[in-house]
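REVIEWER CHECKLIST
Item 1: Sequence provided? yes
Item 2: Single chain? yes
Item 3: Sequence as submitted:
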Amino acid sequence: MTMQVQAVIQAPSELEHQFSKKNLRRKEVFLRGVLWETATHICDDPKCGYVVDMYGNYVTRLEDEVQELRAKVAAFESREKS
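Item 4: Structure as written out by the authors:
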């Protein structure tokens, strides 16, 4: 598996459009953090094609679950009225 995440870096403004491997190794460039909620896991086997997109954090996942539960409650209520 390969994992991809978005990284937050601190760099001098003159590097804004010049990010290369060489410039990322400069002593003025720092890794400040990683946005783990954007993680994507990709199977390295070309025959596999398995991708797990982890985009979103616990708040967005909770919002999705609330929407799903509301839909289930509405469906249940409509069946009860019938």
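Item 5: Key structural point noted by reviewer: DSSP finds two helices and three strands in the chain.
Item 6: Recommendation: ____
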